[in-house]
Predict the structure of 6-phosphogluconate dehydrogenase, decarboxylating.
Amino acid sequence: PLAQIGVTGLAVMGRNLARNFARHGYRVAVHNRTEARTRALVDEFGGEGDFTATASLEEFTAALERPRRLVIMVKAGQPTDDVIDELVPLLDEGDVVVDGGNAHFLDTRRREQALRERGLHFVGSGVSGGEQGALEGPSIMPGGSEESYRVLGPLLEDIAAQVDGRPCCTHVGPDGAGHFVKMVHNGIEYADMQLIAEAYDLLRHAGGLQPPEIAAVFREWNGGRLESYLIGITADVLAHTDAATGRPFVDVVLDRAEQKGTGRWTVQTALELGVPVSGIAEAVFARSLSGHAELRKASAGLPGPTETWLDSAASDRFAEDVEQALYASKIVAYAQGFQQIQAGSDEYGWRIDPGAMATIWRGGCIIRARFLDRIRAAYEGDRERPSLLTDEHFLQALAGAQSAWRRVVSTAAQLGVPTPGFATALAYYDSLRARVLPAALIQGQRDFFGAHTYRRIDRDGSFHTRWEEPGRPEEER
Ligand code: NBP
């Protein structure tokens, strides 16, 4: 019998996805540009299920039952276009082509339209969870037509992570919706990692704790409301000792964070959509700053505060305060990310259900966390809510955390420990809360130098003041 699903591109991700399908009993056709990888897969893991190794895309497409379901898992960008161009002449109307790579959602929109015009379904799908997730159950975020999900969805839901009996996979929305949501997922991941890193930095450089002690603090936190994959691995990384030197692992790693670009895409897109995702932006900038070795070296002599440690009385409750600040900042970062999903959904007409996104992120992906259940519940209560911060649970959490949060941010400022993530989250919170923002003054400045006009609180219309002629009434424009 013909294969039920095909995977082309058998590097770590593709190979593990193919094995995941096979382990779930599906007949899988496999293909890779360099045939050695295909052979290696079948030699090593052929016993796990029913694989059909193919040496060309012709053989690959011929090995699949109709309508064909095939997953492209190659390097994002031009390689994906190359594979699509080669595949399309070999396909028939109704076939479903999945791109499981990290494509930009605008590329996915372009590809989906091109394939739709040829009678093919194109599914841009986010796949999160890395190598291990791909094998054992990722979080899957497929976009594309309803029809494509009818053909493909059951297979994807089968191989996805499962939480409380529900698959971490759902139809996100048309064309680029899946890759858009995956992009924002990665942006949130950047923010979450930055906040955790700041918590560590504070415990170490204000609280005076050593990495193994901080690992213990994170383990404890992982038993509570912060329980998540990222907190868990943070404890493991902090507890790890470098074999060569016997020093804490974090002390032998160069402190320059790298990035592949999905965080940057999230922020670029947020700027286009006009969504203030300051937490994600600070996280991307913090990574970028860490990589500016020359700038940092040249700035090492900048004066800092004279006080550099907490006194012991304050340090006793400091870890608790940091936990509160971390939780509150995390709520803000997620609220911003979900706001971006809603803005993207409105802009492109995707009708994304934010609660469903929280549901499929509960397992398989890097940001999986107990916390996502709260977000799911918040959107189940009100799908159109303007911000997660207004949900009763989060409101209570922020109310309980805010004094500690303020203490942590001011302590960090006093001691000179950089906390861009905590600080921007608090500033966002206070900006939303503010009854009046200084934006009125900015409007005045704009009108002064550029006659950009302003609106008034007491009358409709646009106004311009003749700044050079004091005393003259403003004009309505
Ligand atoms: P890579 O991103 O390293 O890509 C390697 C694969 O692309 C190989 O199979 C390679 O074939 C193939 N390829 C390239 Br490169 N150029 C090609 C071309 N012009 N035509 C045909 N095939 C080509 O693999 P990966 O790390 O497994 O990631 C696959 C996708 O999944 C990427 O888009 C990635 O962004 C995404 N992703 C990765 C992760 C992760 O944790 N790694 C997580 C989530 C998503 P060859 O063997 O012949 O060179």
The chain has 20 helices and eleven strands. Residues 9-14, 32-34, 37, 73-76, 79, 82-83, 101-102, 127, 130-131 surround NBP (CB under 6 Å).
